[in-house]
Amino acid sequence: MIELISAARCTGCNICVAACPTNVFAPSLSGPPVIARQADCQTCFMCELYCPEDALYVAPTAGAPLGLASEADAPLPLGTYRAAIGWTPATAANRSVDAMHAVLSAK
Amino acid sequence: MGFSSSAPSGLHLTCEVLVLGGGPAGTWAAFQAARTGARVVLADKGFCGTSGATAPSGTSIWYVEPDPKLRAAAIVSREALGGFLADRAWSARVLETTHAALHELGARGYPFPVDGAGNPIRVSLQGPEYMRLMRKLAKGAGVRILDHSPALELLVDEAGAVAGARGIRRQQGDGWQVDAGAVVIATGGCAFLSRALGCTALTGDGHLMAAEAGADFSGMEFSNAYAIAADFASVTKTLFFKWATFTDEAGEVIPGAASNGGRSVIARHLQKGRVFARLDRADAAMQANMRAAQPNFFLPFDRMGIDPFTDRFPITLHLEGTVRGTGGLRIVDETCATRVPGLYAAGDAATRELICGGFTGGGSHNAAWAVSSGRWAGRAAADFGRRVPNGRVRRGAGTAGLRDAGARPFDPAEAARTVVGEVHPFARNYFRTEEGLTRSLDRLDSQWARLSASAPADGTNVLRAREAAAMTAVARWMYRSALARTESRGMHRRIDHAAADPAQRHLLTAAGLAEVSVAQRPAAALAADAVETRAGEGIAA
Ligand SMILES: Cc1cc2nc3c(=O)[nH]c(=O)nc-3n(C[C@H](O)[C@H](O)[C@H](O)COP(=O)(O)OP(=O)(O)OC[C@H]3O[C@@H](n4cnc5c(N)ncnc54)[C@H](O)[C@@H]3O)c2cc1C
Ligand code: SF4
Ligand code: SF4
């Protein structure tokens, strides 16, 4: 479940407000969007992929957030998923890494 | 019936084709329709590109090279699993169209991995990448996309043909209406608010809207897909549990428990206590492949500090309902038309029995169906939409939650809880019995009667009210069909009729809202080389 927005990283671009499929965020006039409807979060991690600043952290638990006070408490640095799928400039080569064929053909 | 609209129309558009839902089926439909020169609007409940079952996940897809032997083998190999209800001619069409579509995707920039000789490998798609590209392709072809704009009801003309839809814009707080020549329902399956990845928006809204306009369903008994996930997580990937050892609380191996062919053993154990898994049968090379195949599978584990290959972790089964089931809107011809003029269905909203009978197993068929049915429906809707006369008089076809039919509105949260309570429990939906199904139907039927005799929901509640009404309706088509199929076939499993009955190798049509009726239709003729279902065969889970 969506856990936190890092005020230090967020530029207030509101991309996450548009991209979240369940409309969890609400824009604020100044500063980061607010997590307005946390209970509607479907733990899909898509907001992390669309945030250009790696300012969001989705807790792995689907039922409830972990209760982290700040990004410093997150078990892993922010932005690991975006890097893994190749959506950061430095990791773009990962976009065409997909070994599903090897998994599917295994006996 | 007094009309009451949910919200004032903030946006009023006219076009040839309106597509409801922006997953793979909807985006392919919109893209294809727009390429014929039609004006196309696509409305999604969430954000087209991130919403639905495909976007957040990795998807294997039924892609087979056009070698007749390979194609025939691919089709035949799945027949027993599906209870011999699939149709070989439809399967061949889907393989052909999916093949062409995936080549087109590659040409338009999808970054397929390549083999040692540099040839693209096209058997899987990464959801975020795939759906970001589909949004771009649809937009590039001129499709007008309305995000965060759930449809609430269809519009019909004087003759009963579907002629558009109406909904709300939840980020603007107003409504939309699109007057269209034809409508494609691509709103996905119904997963009943389970925690399965990407399924929150999938509450059967399109099923309800289509039924209100007169459409019917096929295969709704094949609607009890359950997928394995870590019990704290949303990410389901049953395939990876092929490498799991399943244990009980004490660490003892559970005999017979397996991701395929032993999932019911897991369900039985979960009814009594916790079940644990460890993917300890994957060697180092396979571990690396799994990570490279599906990074999102590992997110929850990495973030919880669990190594799924060496640590035991508790698992659960998330209901995926018709999303990885096969039932949905009945298709009447090769254009994916429903029985209502002007209304087409694609993807998980439509029945997938045509290509996989009563079971989808490890997937790939549903993804191929979404692509193919989307392309066919989009093209046919554009042809239809261009031919209809101008100046039709339209009215909303919606019922429960929209019409002034009672003194008070119903409580959407409570109505949703009631449905969930009837469809999530294994004892009801996984292990079906006449007694259990009948008891559930009593509650669901009376809930439908109550919802359809209520006052309209107000603006802030109307989406949740329609979702609850839709789930109620879908559950009724499911369970009436399940009651009528007094055998076990495909994923439909009756405890009181544990074997397949060769006399029931037919399809079931479900229809109606006030009263639900179920009727039999013959399945495609059994091919000479197909083996008829023997007792117990074709029950794959
Ligand atoms: C975790 C998971 C893994 C899967 N893996 C595989 C796999 O490996 N292979 C495979 O073949 N299949 C797989 N499937 C199934 C596959 O994801 C679906 O078959 C596919 O997504 C269907 O596409 P669709 O476009 O019909 O529906 P979806 O992708 O679900 O999209 C439906 C869209 O409709 C929108 N919508 C809903 N209601 C409304 C409304 N009222 N108004 C407007 N829009 C609305 C939703 O927001 C959503 O965007 C998987 C499913 C899940 C859940
Ligand atoms: S997308 Fe990221 S940077 Fe932009 S508003 Fe959201 S959290 Fe802030
Ligand atoms: S995890 Fe998904 S549902 Fe939750 S806030 Fe992020 S995008 Fe929205």
TrEMBL record, chain A:
Superkingdom of source? Bacteria
Sorted keywords for this record are: 4Fe-4S, Iron, Iron-sulfur, Metal-binding
- Key word Zinc present: no
Question: Which Gene3D superfamilies does this chain map to?
Answer: 3.30.70.20
List the transmembrane segments. Answer: none
4Fe-4S ferredoxin-type domain: from which residue to which, for each copy? 1-30, 31-61
SUPFAM superfamilies per UniProt: 4Fe-4S ferredoxins
Q: Is NAD one of the keywords?
A: no
Q: Which PANTHER family match?
A: ADENYLYLSULFATE REDUCTASE, BETA SUBUNIT (PTHR43687), BLR5484 PROTEIN (PTHR43687:SF4)
Task: Identify this protein by name.
Answer: NAD-dependent dihydropyrimidine dehydrogenase PreA subunit
UniProtKB/TrEMBL annotation, chain B:
* UniProt-listed Gene3D superfamilies: FAD/NAD(P)-binding domain, Fumarate reductase/succinate dehydrogenase flavoprotein-like, C-terminal domain
The keyword Flavoprotein belongs to this UniProt entry's keyword annotation: yes
Q: Which residue numbers delimit the Fumarate reductase/succinate dehydrogenase flavoprotein-like C-terminal domain?
A: 431-504
Q: Which SUPFAM superfamilies match?
A: FAD/NAD(P)-binding domain (SSF51905), Succinate dehydrogenase/fumarate reductase flavoprotein C-terminal domain (SSF46977)
Question: Carries keyword Oxidoreductase?
Answer: yes
Report the superkingdom from the record: Bacteria
**Which stretches make up the FAD-dependent oxidoreductase 2 FAD-binding domain?**
17-222
Q: What is one Pfam family matched by this protein? A: FAD_binding_2
* This protein's UniProt keywords: Flavoprotein, Oxidoreductase
UniProt-listed PANTHER family: SUCCINATE DEHYDROGENASE 2 FLAVOPROTEIN SUBUNIT, SUCCINATE DEHYDROGENASE [UBIQUINONE] FLAVOPROTEIN SUBUNIT, MITOCHONDRIAL
Q: What is this protein called?
A: Succinate dehydrogenase/fumarate reductase flavoprotein subunit
**What is the originating organism of this protein?**
Xanthobacter agilis
